[in-house]
Amino acid sequence: MEKIFVSGGNKLKGKVRIDSAKNSVLPIIASSILTSDTIIIKNAPMLNDVQVICELLKSLGCNISINKIKGEISIDSSKVQEIEPSGELVRRMRASFLVMGPMLARFGKFKISLPGGCNIGTRPIDLHLKGLKALGAEISTEGGVVEVRCNKLKGNKIYLDFPSVGATENIMMASTTAKGVTVLENAAEEPEIEDLANFLNKMGAKIYGAGTDTIIIEGVDRLKGVEYIPIFDRIEAGTFMIAAAITKSKITLENAREYYMKPLVAKLREMGVEITSIEDNVIEVNGNVQLKPVDIKTLPHPGFPTDMQSQIMALLATVKGTSVITETIFENRFMHVSELNRMGCKIKIEGRSAIIEGVEELSGCEVKATDLRAGAALIIAGLVAKGETIVDDIYHIDRGYVNIEEKFRNLGAKVYRREV
Ligand code: EPZ
Questions:
Q1: What average pLDDT values come out for the chain (420 residues) when binned by 10 residues?
Q2: Which of 155, 230, 288, 387 could tie 364 with a disulfide, CB 3.0–4.6 Å?
Q3: Which positions bear 2-(S-cysteinyl)pyruvic acid O-phosphothioketal (predicted)?
Q4: 389 CA from centroid of ligand 1 (Å)
Q5: How many angstroms separate the Cα of 341 from the Cα of each of 191, 240, 313?
Q6: Would residue 225 count as lying in a domain?
Q7: Nearest C-alpha to atom 9 of ligand 1 is from which residue?
Q8: How far is the CA of 165 from the centre of ligand 1 (A)?
Q9: pLDDT (tens digit, 9 = 90+) per residue, 151-197?
Q10: Is 327 in the pocket of ligand 1 (CB under 6 A)?
Q11: Predicted TM-score of the model (pTM)
Q12: What residues are designated binding site for phosphoenolpyruvate?
């Protein structure tokens, strides 16, 4: 099996180009089912999760070609059929559930196995189902499979109990061709929601207010094929910003916009990191400064992103003083704490908070990735740990980062992937 080996002590320098956002590309691929025309996604990140959702669409009859060199995915859903996807595929990646809204809109019925939880939480889908029910769908769940039926979805006013990203996306996609207007309140405001709406509007949808807590969708008769370049991955960008901070380095991020990274940038600046937008899509990060401890609470956007929690924890573990991180989004997203403590971090969990006492030095050792962002956090810690850090279960990391070791090596870090 493959592991990632990190030798600590190197400073970073130079430029890193950020890939397109996994959490944008996945719903965009799912929504290609809404049209029989061909969709072409450019600058697509060749991630494992992207492969999985393409595999899922192919199993439904979509014709997909992936050009890894050009980073292009072409999707022809003209021959998609209303069949139940394999439960194994759906459970392998929860985001598979994002095909439910588009399939219901296209066929008036759809069956899919419940996605189940994952390491970081039970990951319920009650809000997805509540939204589709409000649009007129009849819903039944039996034997771990959910079936939704409705000949013609009708627009409605929906208030989400929690601004769920996935539920917002499923409801928005299903509403694009519903009869009448849908008003979605307490909607998720993540940049990837805005990007999905921009993609759907380019296809001919009429969506207003995406990126705010109220999204209005006017149903249209049909959507057409388009070419699209998704937004950059703000979590990958944030991961490299934090790597620069922990190694006290100065690096430049290309294809990254500060506007979509405000909560993280504000917190890093509060710590003392110097972050400068050079041009619209270029950010310079200088971590060669004295850093201060901070307190963080993860919240829906524009709050601090839960997907940056483990990475900034690794950074705070090396900052003199006491920092507190409270995780409010997922009920079990502190599994990286025990792995970081193996490296000499001093982190204590109290309920939904982690109390972090900064230490002078970390020591490399064998650790395990427990989710894709936790894996990135262990690499970040390894960059400054004495000796070698060996990260296992790196399949988690490959779900969300393209060639992460190569990108770090190009910045001067000693990060290698080896078969062991
Ligand atoms: C998306 O997951 C992202 N995944 C996650 O990124 C991200 O951590 C999460 O949003 C929060 O920002 C993709 O976009 C593919 P949610 P999603 O629905 O849609 C509760 C990564 O690292 N909830 O906003 O599943 C749920 O229990 C991944 O790239 C309900 O209660 O997130 C959780 O506590 C990890 N009922 C909270 O909302 C529902 O019906 C956030 O879930 C749905 C969600």
A1: 97 98 98 98 95 95 96 97 90 91 97 84 91 97 94 97 98 98 98 98 98 98 98 98 98 97 98 95 97 98 98 98 98 96 98 98 97 96 98 94 96 97
A2: 387
A3: 118
A4: 30
A5: 33, 22, 11
A6: no
A7: 165
A8: 6
A9: 999 999 999 999 999 999 999 999 999 999 999 999 999 999 999 99
A10: no
A11: 0.97
A12: 22-23
Calculate how far, in angstroms, residue 238's C-alpha sits from the geometric centre of ligand 1. 18
46 & 181 share domain: yes
Task: Report the candidate in 149, 194, 177, 214 with the shortest Cα–Cα distance to residue 34.
Answer: 177
Q: What is the DSSP letter of 272?
A: T
Read off the pLDDT of residues 361-370 as tens digits, 9 standing for 90 and up.
999 999 999 9
Q: What is the Cα–Cα distance from 151 to 262, expressed in whole angstroms?
A: 42
For the segment 123-149, what is each residue's pLDDT rounded down to a tens digit? 889 999 999 999 999 999 999 999 999
Structural contact between residues 317 and 341, judged by C-beta atoms closer than 8 angstroms: no
Name the residue type at position 277: S
Question: Is 232 near ligand 1, meaning CB less than 6 Å away?
Answer: no
Look up the CATH number of the domain holding residue 286. 3.65.10.10
150 catalytic, yes or no?
A: no
In short, whether 306's Cβ falls inside 6 Å of ligand 1 is yes
